[in-house]
Amino acid sequence: MPSRERAFLVLALLAAAALASLMQALAAGSLALPAGAVWDALLGRGDGMSQEVVRGLRLPRALAAFACGGLLALAGALMQVLLRNPLADPYVLGISGGAAVGALAAMLLGVGASFGIEAAAFAGALSAMLLVFGLAHGDGSWTQARLLLTGVIVAAGCGAAVALMLSVAPEHKLRGMLFWLMGDASHATDPWTPLLALAAGLAVALFFARELNLLARGAQLAATLGANVGRLRLALYFLASLLTAAAVTSVGSVGFVGLVVPHLVRLALGNDQRLLLPAAVLAGGALLTLADTLARTVVAPQQLPVGVLTALIGVPVFLFLLARSPVRSEA
User: Fold this and answer.
1) What is the pLDDT of residues 170-187, one digit of tens each?
2) Selecting from 3.30.70.1050, 3.40.50.300, 3.10.129.10, 1.10.3470.10, what CATH number does the domain 4-324 have?
3) Helix, strand, or coil here: 129?
């Protein structure tokens, strides 16, 4: 268990990293700006072009990327407690697949407005969430294994539907559909919805932090020590699903953030959910913001899917973690 001083130090470093990633996102681009010019633009003192670039274009995208990274990391931390599996991530229960089906169906039907695509993605995510929970809880014998298997099957079905839509889509729509599937923050122009979802989700998760610490040690021990395990599992499932739905609705399917970030934070802070959850939000937000900045600047003026970069970062990091500490079954 880390000392209080070390925990506050790690949280302070993560907060600084999050701020630095946001500043870098505001400064980098085809119009490179020094830090002083970025601050002037934010405060409304810079020239008109700098203010438009920083406040009108880069700031909404950077805040949306940060919020979605935080949402995915928080959902991943909750899923790993819910399933007591260190390999669980926000997409394991088919929520992302449902969102993909909704978004791609809207694109295929010619919905051009980003709001319509986001609404369809959120509707698909909620439909997948209700389907998984309804099937897993059908006869009242809800178990972690049954929930996981149901989610995997629903995700496979969504994957088949996505493949079918891609195979029949006209060529001029394929690029946008593929970018959404691989993660694309370029259309995330409304950061306030994911930011509000992140703030509300973190507040609810911290409210259950003590019970989460008990559940992480096993359902029987948690029940013995007074936790309402059934209620807690239900709350965790719906909360993690809604957080995932909010993230993928804004930036599409971005992998590895919810899988790798909780592991890294756990190595630094231990498994106390009161510290791990806010730390995961800061680390996940900083990671996705940095990845999105790289996605739009590495081969500018072309943009890369942000999900490709998170995978390129996440795969070697996760392999390193596996090499240092082999995964043990906790079921």
Assistant:
1) 988 888 888 888 887 877
2) 1.10.3470.10
3) helix
